[in-house]
Each structure stands twice: as structure tokens, then as C-alpha cells.
Specification:
3-stranded parallel β-sheet, about 25% helix, 2 helices, about 80 residues, alpha/beta, single chain
């Protein structure tokens, strides 16, 4: 029987070194092979993201650091 791929989208504000970020990193690292994880990060890249067990295509950095940038990003 063919295994079903489960797609999971995680949205997080930033990948600074913190508890939520570390937990998400562990969750992704130890998830089953039939789970396809994708991450949207509202802020830009930083050093911590290098340690994520994901491909570049599974990460999207929106680089939104303020409310005006958020509104501009939504309207574009």
C-alpha cells in the first residue's frame, strides 16, 4: 500500500536562538519521512537557520521587520 505524504506548513516570526525555534528544529529533524515540512519565517535570515534540517526550497523568508513592510508585502 502506498504511503500518503503529509504536508505541514510552519509559520514562525524569526529564527533567532530561542525555545520555539529549537523545538521546531527538533520537530522537523525527527519527523517521519512521509511528512513534508515547509517553513515560512516572517523576518529575514540569520545564523540559526543554517542549522535547520531542511532544503533551501522548504524555507521562505519574508523579511518583514515592521508593520509598514508587512502591509506592503500583503498589498504587493
Amino acid at each position: 500500500m502506498k504511503q500518503k505524504i503529509i504536508k505541514v506548513l510552519h509559520i514562525i516570526t524569526s529564527f533567532e536562538c530561542g525555545g520555539a525555534q529549537t523545538s521546531l528544529k527538533r520537530l522537523i529533524k525527527f519527523s517521519d519521512k512521509e511528512i513534508k515540512n515547509k517553513v515560512i519565517v516572517l523576518k529575514g535570515k540569520n545564523i540559526f537557520y543554517d542549522f535547520l534540517p531542511l532544503n533551501e526550497s522548504d524555507l521562505l523568508f519574508l523579511d518583514i521587520n515592521s508593520i509598514p513592510k508587512l502591509l506592503k508585502g500583503i498589498l504587493d
